[in-house]
Amino acid sequence: MSEHKIAFSVADGIARIVIDDAAHHNVVGAQFTREFARAAIACENDPAVRVVLLTANGKEFSVGGDLNEFLAVGDGLREHVREMAAWFHLGITVLNRLEVPVVCAVNGIAAGGGVSLALMCDLTVATRSARFNLAYTRSGLTPDGGASWFLPRLVGAQRAFDIMALNPTLPADEACAMGLIARVVDDADFTAEVERILQQLLAAPSQAIGRAKRLLRQSLSNSLEAQLELEGQSIAEKVSAPDTLAALQAFFAARRA
User: Fold this and answer.
1) 68, CA 20 to 30 Å: which among 13, 82, 112, 180?
2) C-alpha–C-alpha distance, residues 159 and 73, integer Å
3) What whole-number distance in Å separates Cα of residue 40 and Cα of residue 19?
């Protein structure tokens, strides 16, 4: 077993969760899921974290589940996969409920659980050479990592079924056009653009992005009337915050200049 599957660090307000098993195509295996959940919990428990980045080392983001590990388990496979899913889903649940933005930077092929990771983030950016393939049903499996929840909300029910059942390989531009990811960047500009996005999120008045994220999450289950009430409460509360007033004053000062 290698020393680690994830490199985790926090500096200058940014938590970086980096899938770090390029030699094995950044697979989603038992050790990875445990480390992933622990990294997510570390983000949740650190008040210094204002933005989370999820990305990977190597030429692939993640090819998904470690099928070799599955086959090697033998008679305990069902329990093994259930435990893996529990850790994987814990990490996804924690990251999804954070009140700070979670950015995913997809630097190559994303398949299976790798696609699930990209789907669950608030903003996913991919290199133009990246490719997405859900792949579960091709191997006789069903989706995990929240794919069956996130995907229809992002692309619609019929397109989600197409992606799950027929497993097309989607180029990054096509994935972006259908709403599966947010942005596509030329490979040469990718690292710089991801850092620019992180710095822009960091520069936003504190809690404004987090509150907006919370409103988006609540809108998925609220009526329009309930959502309007929450919006009214939130904007009234935020408008008098010192950093919001400073941002408003700076905005008008720039317009007068």
Assistant:
1) 180
2) 35
3) 13
Mean pLDDT of 38-49: 97
Kindly state the average pLDDT of the residues 69-90: 91
Token pair of 166 as six digits: 């027929």
Q: Which CATH class is domain 6-203?
A: alpha beta
Structural domain spans, the chain:
6-203, 208-256
CA pair distance 60, 65, nearest whole angstrom: 14
Residues 110-160: pLDDT tens digits? 999 999 999 999 999 999 999 999 999 998 999 999 999 999 999 999 999
What does the alpha-carbon distance between residue 203 and residue 193 come to, in Å, rounded to a whole number?
A: 15
Contacts of residue 147, Cβ cutoff 8 Å, sequence gap at least 6 = 115, 116, 119, 134, 136, 164
In CATH terms, the fold of domain 208-256 is Lyase 2-enoyl-coa Hydratase; Chain  A, domain 2 (1.10.12)
Q: Is the pLDDT assigned to residue 1 strictly greater than 60?
A: no
